[in-house]
Specification:
Structural class: mainly alpha
Shape: globular
Helix content: over 70%
Low-confidence stretches: none
Largest sheet: none
Radius of gyration: 24 Å
Order of helices and strands: HHHHHHHHHHHHHHHHH
């Protein structure tokens, strides 16, 4: 054998179990990402909305025998959007204000859904847009994947290890704060039946987090694998959300203008407009943000009055399969080149 032969040879070291090999790649990626101070600052900033949501749950439980929850539900009843979501969940906010304890499940679900729908979803877009573009594209540019795959690691395990980095970040942003709020609500509740009324909420939190994590991570990794320049992948990621949102609101706005012309003008906020934007519409398929938001509404039980639709679930499954499949194909193709 030549002295300077650097070709591949049979691995002679100790092998770890196959199901743990991707964890090594994931822990390395998490360690590298966690070094940046900006990520810690973003996560600390994301803790503020979670703290506010926790205060709402704590206030509801600590003052349930007084006027606090009643005033909170009456305030929600004054908001047409909140009244629209409550009606689609089969809840009359005026009745809930009279007996808040009977509507504990809805109140907790609505607070946790609002946390997941707005601050956590926007935080997810920012964090993945800053972390995900470098995960595969940087390895493709520096040929770092050769270092990983020279060991007994398959392209599928490589992609899964990279996706676990994103899973960890999203789980820390979405599931952990919501679960902590739920546990804190149980400890602060003065009602011994609170756990019996809300036992399914942790399961809904985990499922809503999975719906947020799996398709978004798949699309982010696909963008990262598409190019060797991470800035292009980052631009494509943010452009997808912006263009999708603009397309949805343009189509929805044009429809609302047409309906507004045909019906008489009314004073004050029109609840029908909020019903239209919160209910399912095929226009939402153009917007990943609206599609994921409606899936989370279904998971938290806030759409029981709507006709069930499989369209957002099918789109999320297709995006996941295509995203992970493309990343796998790209890594395998580079190795064969």
């Amino acid at each position: 054998m030549p002295l300077l032969d650097v070709g591949y040879r049979q691995w002679e070291g100790n092998r770890t179990p196959r199901w743990t090999r991707a964890l090594v790649l994931a822990t390395t990626g998490i360690h590298l990402v966690w070094k940046g101070t900006w990520l810690k600052r973003v996560l600390m900033f994301m803790a503020i909305p979670a703290l506010i949501a926790g205060i709402f749950v704590a206030t509801f439980e600590q003052t349930i025998d007084r006027s606090g929850p009643r005033e909170m539900l009456r305030a929600l009843n004054q908001n047409p959007q909140s009244r629209s979501i409550a009606a689609r969940a089969g809840v009359d906010l005026s009745e809930a204000a009279a007996d808040p304890e009977a509507y504990r499940h809805f109140t907790w679900s609505y607070i946790l859904f609002s946390l997941s729908r707005y601050p956590q979803a926007f935080g997810m877009i920012v964090v993945l847009g800053l972390v995900a573009p470098r995960l595969i594209s940087y390895d493709l540019r520096s040929r770092g994947y050769l270092l990983y795959l020279s060991r007994p690691l398959t392209p599928g395990e490589y992609v899964f290890g990279k996706s676990m980095v994103l899973f960890f970040l999203l789980f820390m942003m979405s599931a952990v704060p919501a679960l902590l709020i739920y546990v804190a609500g149980l400890f602060l509740s003065t009602d011994s039946t609170a756990i019996a009324q809300t036992w399914d909420i942790p399961l809904r939190i985990l499922l809503a987090s999975l719906v947020l994590m799996i398709p978004t991570s798949a699309v982010a990794l696909a963008f990262s694998a598409m190019t060797q320049e991470s800035r292009y992948a980052g631009f494509a990621w943010f452009a997808m959300w912006v263009v999708g949102g603009v397309t949805f609101y343009s189509l929805w706005g044009a429809t609302q203008i047409g309906q507004e012309i045909r019906r008489p003008r009314r004073r004050g906020p029109d609840i029908e407009a909020f019903n239209a934007i919160n209910s399912w519409s095929s226009y939402k398929l153009f917007s990943p943000y609206e599609t994921l938001g409606y899936l989370q509404q279904q998971i938290f039980g806030l759409t029981v009055k709507d006709d069930w639709t499989w369209a957002p679930w099918i789109l999320a499954i297709i995006a996941s399969i295509v995203g992970y499949g493309f990343a796998y194909w790209r890594v395998s193709r580079v190795l064969k080149a």
